[in-house]
Write a structure and sequence with these properties.
The complex is a heterodimer of chains A (315) and B (363). Chain A is built from 14 helices and 4 strands. Chain A has helices spanning 2-7, 9-28, 35-60, 68-84, 89-112, 118-137, 147-154, 162-180, 182-192, 194-199, 204-230, 241-251, 263-282, 287-314, and strands at residues 142-143, 156-157, 160-161, 232-233. The mean pLDDT of chain A is 90. In chain B, 51% of the residues lie in helices and 17% in strands. The relative contact order of chain B is 0.13. Chain B has 2 domains: 50-183 and 319-346, Rossmann fold (3-Layer(aba) Sandwich), CATH 3.40.50; 186-297, Rossmann fold. Chain B is of the alpha/beta class. The chains are: A mainly alpha (315), B alpha/beta (363). Chain A binds chain B through residues 31, 34, 36-37, 40, 43-44, 47, 138-141, 143-144, 154, 226, 229-232, 234, 236-237, 239-240, 277-278, 281-282, 284, 286-289, 291-292, 295-296, 299-300, 303, 307, and chain B through 1, 4, 8, 11-12, 15, 18-19, 83, 107, 109-113, 115-118, 121-123, 125-130, 141-144, 146-147, 167, 170, 174, 213-215.
Chain lengths: 315, 363
């Protein structure tokens, strides 16, 4: 029991913050706990959730991916163009996701085989993708999709929106992969000590390419949700989302140095950030304060997480 | 360990104080000029002379008659594009002061950036949870709010659009509708600028049009308005340049155009920033006294340049009055009046050296 508490102290802290936030907001606004509002929060979190799960893999391996926001825009554009050109919706979605994975694969290849720092690779990828989007679309949105396609973004399965189902499913799969499979273990091992992992006979390059591909795929799914929700592929969709995803991942307890990752924490962190966003709108407070609040929470959370880690290593 | 906690505390204290101080300094000046203008308004009405702004204000009430009943106390909402642009901040002022005048409440929200379309939809969805009777939205793109508007229709919340428009065809296809809209006649802004040059010069000659970004609704409409007006009046449009609302690009384009056409008589520009870039290029070539420059927006810099005589004229539009119209139209819609065809006439004024002195209270 004690060991459980110690190992999961940070996740429990996050749950605590989540509960306190919910309690405060439900006292402050009578609308907060309504089913409709809870559904709103989950629905809006979906995009960030999918994105952050992918980011968790990359960050816990000690790398970073700044291109996910641009991949949202790019994969959305590909799906939009294919749909409008008459390709069946589901095939268009599949091709869009494949393109997103291919971009992730390229990122991974450049990082592992060409030995370029992932910050630089993905930063460059981000600007390249945005540029290509603007050239191909002439900076104009693509719109007018089939019902099947928009169902994936704004449809409902029973009382629950499709993006909610999709994002929770991906979070669950992500958690299983990271915590229960060889891929996840190796990924954490490489993040802790790449050299040691290499000496132990792990093909570090292969796993790096795999996690960047996973991250690209997640961004592609986020792109699908954004495009289908808005019923239009915007050239600038997803701009700046990479920072939200990184913030949620770090707040969730994944270490920037690698070697430590927590999908459940990421999920809770995403919820906290989106609940704050929602709560401030309900309380009619300017969204500018939310940015200040997000930054402050991030500093405090990482401080606590790091000081916990240090304490343990000192013992 | 203690030192680190101290550091963290210090950091938080800093953030907190910045927020509080920022909040104070934001709200104070916003209130002051508002008081001033009401005082001024009282003074000038006493002396019988109205400023351009007061005429426009009165025109809004005439255009929107019959005006809705005051003091109903309903809750209204408004979603703007982004509050990091002074246009929307002034519009928020218009919303809030009109709401106060009509005895209703209004909550104004905005996205953090001009590009966060999903975020704007999120704000609309969040606002629909509260009991707003009507919401005025300024969509970032024609499509991004459609599913939210459909939801609002189901919840019986009236939606109008202000400034930016929603793609009504796509909205109708999704089964939604808006109660009314306030559009800005960007084409007319181009017409007014070109007409000003035509009126001042009298005899047809060579002119050039400096446009904004290709594909942008406002940029294209302003460009076409100016070009069509010139051509109808028999002027020769020697060049139409896309300068993306960028000062430097406008400066470069103007330099090239004037080099090729030394007998040019005028430039119309898609906004004031570009127009001032053109003015600078002309000044360096010592050609400014021979060439007229007209822009759109009436920014603070443009006002100063008109006052010191270096810049000829600009077309001013009032985001404040647009916000005011938004409140009035929402209230009219709630009373069951048909507002589907009102609000197409946002007041505009051409400002030059002759009337810039009366424009102090324009907002």
């Amino acid at each position: 029991m004690k060991r459980f508490l110690r190992e999961h102290s940070y996740t429990l802290l996050l749950v605590g913050i989540l509960i306190v936030t919910i309690v405060i907001l439900s006292i402050a606004s009578p609308y907060f706990l309504s089913w409709k509002n809870c559904r709103n929060i989950l629905n809006q979190s979906a995009i960030y959730l999918v994105l952050s799960v992918g980011m968790t893999f990359v960050i816990c391996m000690g790398e970073i991916d700044l291109s996910v926001g641009a991949i949202i825009g790019f994969s959305g554009m590909i799906m939009g163009m294919l749909c409008v050109a008459g390709v069946p919706s589901l095939l268009a979605v599949l091709l869009g996701l494949m393109v997103a994975s291919a971009i992730g694969f390229t990122n991974g290849f450049l990082v592992s085989y060409c030995k370029i720092n992932s910050f630089i690779v993905t930063l460059a990828m981000m600007t390249i993708l945005r540029g290509v989007i603007l050239v191909w679309t002439n900076a104009k949105p693509i719109y007018g999709f089939s019902d099947i396609f928009t169902f994936l973004g704004s449809g409902k399965i029973g009382p629950v929106n499709v993006p909610i189902v999709l994002s929770l499913l991906i979070a669950a799969v992500g958690a299983v992969i990271l915590h229960k499979t060889v891929l996840g273990n190796y990924c954490l091992f490489c993040g802790t000590n790449e050299l040691a992992a290499n000496r132990a006979g792990i093909n570090v390059r292969k796993y790096k390419i795999m996690i960047f591909t996973i991250c690209g795929l997640c961004a592609g799914i986020a792109g699908l949700i954004v495009t289908a929700r808005l019923n239009s592929a915007e050239p600038l969709a997803g701009q700046g989302y990479e920072m939200d995803a990184i913030a949620a991942t770090i707040l969730g307890g994944t270490s920037m140095q690698g070697g430590k990752g927590n999908v459940l924490g990421t999920v809770i962190a995403c919820l906290i950030l989106n609940i704050l966003k929602n709560g401030l709108v309900l309380l009619s407070i300017s969204s500018h304060y939310q940015e200040v609040l997000t930054g402050a929470i991030l500093i405090v959370a990482v401080f606590i997480s790091e000081s916990n880690k240090r304490k343990r290593s000192e013992v | 360990m203690k030192k680190k906690f101290l550091g963290l505390l210090l950091c938080l204290a800093l953030i907190f104080s910045m927020t509080v101080m920022g909040g104070c300094s934001n709200s104070e000046p916003a209130e002051e000029p508002a008081e001033e203008t009401t005082e001024e308004a009282a003074e000038t009405t006493e002396s019988g002379e109205q400023t351009v702004f007061q005429q426009a204000l009165a025109q809004v009430d005439v255009d929107l008659a019959p005006l809705p009943e005051k003091g109903t106390g309903v809750n209204l909402g408004a979603i703007e594009s982004t509050l990091s642009n002074s246009f929307w901040v002034t519009m928020q002022e218009g919303y809030e002061e009109a709401a106060e005048e009509y005895g209703v409440t209004v909550d104004v929200q905005a996205t953090d950036s001009d590009t966060d379309t999903a975020g704007q939809l999120g704000i609309l969805e969040d606002m629909l949870v509260k009991d707003y009777k009507a919401i005025a939205v300024s969509p970032l793109t024609g499509d991004c709010l459609i599913s939210g508007i459909v939801q609002a229709n189901q919840d019986d919340v009236k939606i109008i659009t202000t400034g930016n428009e929603v793609d009504e065809e796509a909205l109708a296809a999704a089964g939604g509708a808006i109660a009314g809209k306030i559009t800005v006649d960007f084409y007319n802004q181009g017409v007014l600028g070109a007409q000003y040059i035509i009126d001042k010069v009298g005899t047809p000659g060579k002119v050039a049009v400096i446009a904004g970004n290709e594909g942008g609704t406002q940029a294209d409409a302003r460009r076409d308005g100016a070009k069509d007006t010139f051509e109808k009046a028999g002027y020769e449009v020697v060049s139409v340049e896309q300068c993306d609302f960028d000062v430097q690009k406008a400066y470069d384009a103007a330099t090239a155009i004037i080099e090729a056409n030394p007998d040019l008589i005028g430039f119309t520009c898609g906004n004031d920033d570009m127009a001032l870039g053109v003015v600078k290029a002309l000044q360096e070539k010592e050609m400014k006294d021979k060439v007229m420059v007209v822009g759109v927006d009436f920014t603070a810099e443009a006002k100063a340049a008109i006052q010191d005589g270096s810049y000829d004229a600009t077309v001013a539009m009032s985001p404040y009055l647009m916000g005011r119209e938004g409140i009035i139209i929402m209230l009219k819609a709630l009373e069951g009046q048909d507002v589907s065809s009102v609000g197409d006439s946002t007041p505009m004024a051409v400002v030059d050296a002759s009337n810039v002195a009366q424009m102090d209270d324009w907002k």
